[in-house]
Amino acid sequence: MTTGTPGALDLGKLFAARLQAARVRPYLATALFALHPVESRQVPTMGVDRYWRCYVSPVFVDRTPVEELAAVWVHEVSHLLRDHHGRSDRVARERGLTGPGERLRMNIAADLEINDDVYGDGLVRPEGAVQPDRLGLPVGLLMEDYLRRFRLGAITQRLAWLDCGSGADGLDRGWELGPDGAHGLSDQERDLVRFRVAQGINGRPGTAPEGWRRWAEEVLHPPQPWRELLGAAVRSATSGAGSGDDYSYGRPARRSAGVPRAILPGLRRRPPRVCVVVDTSGSVSDTELGSALLEVAAISRSVGGRRDLVTVVSCDAAARTVQPLCRAEGIELVGGGGTDLRAGFDRALRTRPGPDVVVVLTDGQTPWPAARPACRTVVGLFPRQRSSGSSIEHDPHYRPDTPPEWARVVTIGSSGG
Amino acid sequence: MPSQTSLVTPASPSGTSQLDLAADLLTLLREASTEPRADTQLEALTLAVAADLPVLLWGEPGIGKTAALTQLATALDLPLTTVIASVHEPSDFSGLPVVGDDPAAQGVPMAPPDWAVRLVRAGRGLLFLDELSTAPPAVQAALLRLVLERRIGALRLPPGVRIVAAANPRSSAADGWELSPPLANRFVHLQWTHDHDVVVRGLGGVWPRATLPRLDAEKLPEAVAFARRAVCGFLSARPGLAHRLPSGETRRGGAWPSPRSWEMTLRLIAFVTAADSSRDVLSLLVRGTVGDGPGLELLASLDRMDLPDPEALLADAAGAVLPERGDLRQAVLDGVVDAVRKRPERDRWDAAWTLLVRALETGAPDVVVVPATTLASLRREGWDVPAAIERLAGVVSLSRRADDATRRAAVATGVRR
Question: Which GO terms describe its molecular function (chain B) (predicted)?
């Protein structure tokens, strides 16, 4: 722990910094202490690998004040907690990004995601930490979004020394100990550390900043792409008893002739009828509606529905129009103003022949039918951010109507599709 | 054209036909060696099947589920029967009604298919129901009865037959296949993924050979005791997790906690312990049985169960072995200090100091700071400071250094904010 030999790693300083980091960010203490420091002369500053080892340059520790080292500890552990290496690998596969240049961009994007909200409140910003505003980018985005918004060029040139190790961008470095080296954490151990930190943050929500609370929420309840969920809900609703392909004894099977004494059911096909009720009140934007409507049409086609079996009811305070989807020019959405979806439900259920499924696209700020309708219901819900607490302040009795129990609700987000 | 004539020619000058050559080429292509490789998901599958629990493999088509099942059948020494659900009719599983001479007197027997008869006659085997999710709903209903009640028509599958089913993920299933919560609760859900490296290496001629877990006869009673302690201890601390129906669209069709699935978990923990498999394997199984959240919580509590008992450490402070990982070590030291606080006695207090010194000598000093501070505050009147405490002087200076840095950082961030 002494600094006797010149050039040796000053562990005392490094651990004092970790202690400070754990004091100012108590909810990260578990993760900070789970990191195993490894002295390395090849790493430019500090870097982590995906097995939760932290490589430290002795020179860097010598020339950096304790409080800045503390910030670097938090920065590095954030890479691991937010699974930047796994996400980098996924992005690389999905977008076909190869080569060290792309990995450097991922490292920068990951740094941007961390740096835009991690410092302050007792944690100094380390010298040279890359900030979104220096690249002319907005704050608060995810690594994947940042990655779309900048290229390597003159402005990122001076960041080329930047290197947080494979824990940040998934690219293995020469100095790293690899999967078989000592003091690595297994998959399951890493999951558990993450889980514990997330639990700690959720248990004491007041202390952690917004960014970490959102992260903890996602660790415990990872978000799912709404397109897939909506698809699954609509498919499941349309393929229930009475529609779709299924066997029925109501008609003999074609292979009955070959097995004379056996009674075989026949495959019967009845394509599902889908009625989409669209909330056209002023509060839902056209783009949102358009994308969701297209999605429903595509799904119902994929389950064997014909275009003429999909009808659309646009509805604000009253149900306006009923149109089949087969009109080439697309769907006319009429409306604006307030919403009463009960009218839309009535209209949808009165169409003959009756629908197998009603899909409702709405922001949910509407009264709902009191009784369960006679067919399955899927609600695509556009989440509405209420300006924090203000509506409650003005009207303490205000409570938005939530979709009823009998409907399957899929929250339609802007991302993740 | 010359190429055509050469194929038509019955024999080449050497006397071998083109088809013989083709067969040689095919033999060469088939030649592949194997290498041992740890395969967590196959190990998990083997243990679940050995534990006689219905397993549902979730995975995209064409990623080697069948190959895995072949390996599993070899390991368990069971003949493999594969049934592709989507090409069968419901009557193939529930039995074909065959009308006899006098149905009123004899009844209508449900004739089972030939593979079922063979399976029952053999008395043992591995039945793999592939492509469960692409079959029409009536077929799926019949299959689920087969899995859960082990009946095909009038036949009952003998206990020596193990069943594994496979399905495509909900989002990519061709139609709306999903399990209702009661059904989902009866399965161990395993997510089947392919490892890119394994596939590339396999195509290059070297396939992995998994060494599969073997149960250790001597460990059986101990395994049962451990499993009971783990699950009961956890559930008495978290009674809310004993039964929790899945809510919301994202969790639908997956694993969730109930007394039934906890009983399955208990069985799986015993099997994993008896086979001495890794925590990664256990993690897959537990999360596939009670769901991610409760599964992770149980694993976290197992992690704590593995930690040395504070009382045992206090009893033998000189010979104590502390965990290497910093976060676990801190948890142990906190536990020790807590034990002293509950029963403050002079010799326990001294023993705790010895433990802290040991921790300091064998690992990072920052972990010791908080327990040391707390332990110092537990001092009673008349208790002399033990000699060992002098060796903790480094910790005091470390703490002071962190304090200074915290103060500087607070000033700096205060100015910047």
Answer: ATP binding; ATP hydrolysis activity
